[in-house]
Here is the input.
Amino acid sequence: MSGQGKTQRGALSLLLLCPFLLAVLVPFLWMVLGIFKTNNEFFQPLGKAFFPVNYEWQNVNELLDGKWVPFWDVFGNSLVVSFGQALGAVTLSAMAGYAFARFTFSGKRLLFVLAVALILVPRQLFAVPLFSWVNEIGLSDSLFGVMLPGVVTGLGVIYFTQVFRQVPEEYLQAARICGATELRVFLTVLPLVWPALLSYGMIHFILTWHEQLVPMLVLTTETKQTLPLALAKLYDVSQRTPQGVQMAASTFAVIPTAVLFALCYRKFRSSLSDMLVH
Amino acid sequence: MAAGDQRTPGARWTPFFFLLPFLFFLLLFWVIPLIGGVQMSLHANGVGQAKYIGFAHYKALANDERYFTALRNSFVYTLASVVVIVPLALWLAHLLRASFRRLRPVLTFALLLPALTPPSVLAVLFVMVFHGRNGLLNQLFVMPLGFEPINWLKDPDFILSGLVLQTVWRWTGFMTFFILAGMEGIPRVYYEAARLATGSRWRQFWHVTLPQLRPVLLFVAVYLVVDGFSLFSGAYVLLGGSGGTADAGLLTVTYVFLKTRFFDYGSASAISISLLPLMVLALFGCLFLRRRTV
Here is the structure.
């Protein structure tokens, strides 16, 4: 194809993508601008008052000072829960995936099918018995009660089974010949697959960051709750929270996951391209 | 795997050492709650030693119109989201590939921004921007075409479409990202071979791209199905935890949640358990598809 033809095709594709980009970006732009609006401005028709009259930080200050919800507590809790759960999920799934990919043992097929079945059962459906069980083992109203149940994931096990299948066998053999224990062999393989570890950790972090139902059942004290619960409270009409404060909280809720994804973007994509097709 | 013995020198328990943490948490947070759920569904509601009532909760469900409404809505919602999102994401991935290489990461990232956003925030943005008389949907599409503005969240004919639209808005970019990653992994040689056989881009797409993308598409579809059946926060914020006007937006998880709110735990568990056979069926469907592809 000629260079000019390529440019034309690129420009045309970009043009066709534009409506979709607008459909995504306009609401987010509107959210960020909403931080600076008064309630009155906020409810104007979109075209009339897209930009705020004054850029003042009062709404952000109110949110950060904890006037409406204990923002820093909630934000910190969300970070702790998401990070802890992602770490746990990566550890457990990587170990299990390694076992599935690299060993033969009786009951392997059955266990693997069980792991696949886990993916297909939505966790939310079993929130109620899970909640009463969490109460029974004394984890109610504790961050661990939210963090620990989520560390078991079928998706993770299947992902890491695929990942470890691609590690060359010679590598493992070499480690064994050097007299490494099985655990040691596993640990020497880990650096080879770190983009996969990072990618899965990121995905799990994002999913946990969004989780609402289980935290809603388990966490009752306001300072122990997570961000989605605080958001639900802010959005609640009866609370009469100013719209600008709501938009500030929403913006802060998007920033961590967006930054994390942007940082991991390249690694994540190349690790996916390697895996999805082979 | 004939080399299995060679791979596990000596100790037979080694694989179980690696599986143990996973199995422990699986037992603790999946198997036990699942058994607890079965038990709850067989007992009357109450604290402590509740009375065993057999299949009464299930029998009640069989006569519960709302239960079937919820099932039907969840099913329609899930199917609609897969049918809309997968082709759209394929097309977007194709456009991204055809557009300028340098812009590609930025464009992809912009498109998947909704997937990084908590569902409740997404629902609020969705309501504010798209919904209502002043919303963009009505202003740009419905009213210029000469129709009355649609109240997406109150009119029972449109609630479900509103939910589907929200899902499309949420996931399309993310799935585009996966499909794009899959497309970039397809070896160039395949296309060169295809180019010798046919000049048509459409046939290259049909005979090379699509078959190569099957694992990705399967993953995307499974993800959407599971997410569709577990949709909660989006619908919770949009419809305030209810089923909306005339239950038109009542989804399965919402119904479970409604039951819980009135402390009807037995019935709530019965709904969850009754879905298991459906999930198992879906599982075997996927395994079957997978076997045919590989």
Chain A touches chain B through 92 residues (CB under 8 Å). The first helix of chain A runs from residue 3 to 34. The mean pLDDT of chain A is 86.
